[in-house]
Every structure is written in C-alpha cells, then in structure tokens.
User: What shape does this take?
Amino acid sequence: MKRGRLIVVSAPSGCGKGTILGRVLQDRERFFYSVSATTRAPREGEENGVHYLFYTREAFERCIKGELFLEYAEYCGNYYGTPLAPIEVHLNMGQDVILEIEVQGAMQIREKRPDASFIFIAPPSPAALRERLTNRGTEDAETIEKRVQQAEKELTCVDAYDYCVINDDLDTAVADFLAVVRAIELKVK
Ligand code: 5GP
Assistant: This one.
C-alpha cells in the first residue's frame, strides 16, 4: 500500500485556516488530522480529544521529558505539541497526515522530517487579518493585539514553506489547497 504524506500547514491566526481545513478534512479516508496537545484553556465549543488534547503544564512537561512529541513550541504563553505515536500509524495506513502548527514547530519538523511538505496559508492583506480576528470575537482585546503582532511576524516566514495558499475567496483557497496536496501526493521523491 502507498504510504501517506506528512503535510505541515501553518497560518497566522485569523487567516481562515480552520475553515479551509474543515472543508478539506471532510474526506476522512484520505486525510488524518493530527490532534495537538496544548496547555491553553478550551474555547467555547472546543472538545478535549477533538480540537485539542487539553493538558496541564505539568502533564505537558512530562510528555516533553518522555519524548512523546514530534515537535512542540511555546506560543503566546502556552505550550502546543504534536503527539508522535499516531502519525506513523496513519502514514502507514496510506493517509495524508495534516499537522496544523505554528512556524517554530514547522521549522523543527523541517529539520527532523525530510519527507514532510509545508503549506502556508496567508490572508489577502494585514488589514483583513485584524478584521477577521476582531470579528471572530473569541478573544479579548489584549489577546487579539498579541495575536495580530504574532501574525505579522509569522507572515515574514512564508519563504520557509514550499507552497502558499492565499485565502481571499474560500472556494478558491480550498481548491488551491487540494491542488497542492495532489501535487505533493504525485511527487516522486
Ligand atoms: P490556537 O490557540 O489559535 O488554537 O493555536 C495557536 C497556534 O498554535 C496556531 O498557529 C496553531 O497552528 C498552533 N498549534 C496548534 N497545535 C500545535 C502543535 O502541536 N505544535 C505547534 N508548534 N503549534 C501548534
């Protein structure tokens, strides 16, 4: 059976990454979404084991010591990490494994996994990003400001990725994303 591909996706918050991936991941046979561990508090509607594995800092640090993460990073004051074990299982099952992680973690995977491909999702403009973050209404003003600053920093990292999908129109962005994935699947080496 053909092995799946390891695909790393990064986007500053507010780029509509969740919406794009929500559409793409409807194909559950083709894709496996790696559920990350985090120490941040759940947002309304987020479920443990579905959106994230919600850990205490102590539990997260025990996993770091036990080398249970493929990568981990600290982002806006919280830990985020990719559990290692499920990834190989699903690649061997022939599924494409999608890691939705921020830039520092992506760069760790660049070092460790030459088989991985890297997709960046960008907003059409910085103003659109601030507007989306504000309209989402899930964070207070201080957190939004922190995330906008973080996002502006992250936008400068696009050069470290293999592909960039711009999310202006959702249907186009989803089609572009799937075209990139198909190209990754067809890559010889
Ligand atoms: P949020 O708090 O908005 O859910 O996520 C904040 C950032 O952490 C996003 O850029 C998201 O992609 C990233 N992130 C989520 N899971 C992981 C992970 O396992 N590792 C790393 N390095 N970043 C992650």
Summary: The CA atoms of residues 24 and 178 lie 7 Å apart.
